[in-house]
Amino acid sequence: MGRIIAVYGAIAGVIVMIGMFINISFVSDHGTMGMVAGYLSMLVALLFVFVGVKRYRDIDLGGVIGFWKAFGVGIGIGFVASIFYILGWELYMWQTGGTFMAEYIAKTADDMRVAGKSAAEIAKFSSEMGAMAEQYKNPFFRMALTLTEIFPVALLVSLVSAALLRRSSFMPAVQSRGD
After folding, report:
1. Residue 120 class from Cβ within 10 Å (0-12 exposed, 13-18 middle, 19+ buried)?
2. Is residue 144 part of a domain?
3. In this structure, is residue 178 part of a structural domain?
4. Distance of alpha carbon 157 from alpha carbon 119, whole angstroms
5. Long-range Cβ pairs for the range 167-173 (8 Å, 24+)
6. Domain count, the chain
7. Which end of the chain has fewer surrounding CB within 10 Å, N or C?
8. What pLDDT shows up at residue 177?
């Protein structure tokens, strides 16, 4: 089981890191579209939770798995993928000198000005986000916050995978004939 978690978690993790860097490079400046693309890349990567649990059920357990065992394998794969995601974000922060929060605050304040928000609203936003930026300098805080982006998706995919794959009649293992 540990090997399945490590292998499929690493596959999902590499895919989610690639998706993150593609999103940062090409889509992130497009507002909501960047967020949608980010979560879509997480979902695509986390399909390997389903693939890993199915492989474990079919090959290692002879086609039968209980909900909680399937959920445990799925959440393990999702957690490994989440670690890759966090490491990918930390790599990005290191490459950019940790300027993300300052750039985010400046861009959002500019967007607020363009939208006609009052100076008081913009100042309040900048002050609140400035306090958050101070917390964001702490790598443990930043890593925990980054985990909250991907782990709920991993949890959902693990629950759905376990619910579906606990039924041995759902996508049963293909038996090879010994012709």
Report:
1. exposed
2. yes
3. no
4. 43
5. 168/57, 168/63, 168/64, 168/65, 171/54, 172/58, 172/63, 173/57, 173/58, 173/59, 173/63
6. 1
7. C
8. 56
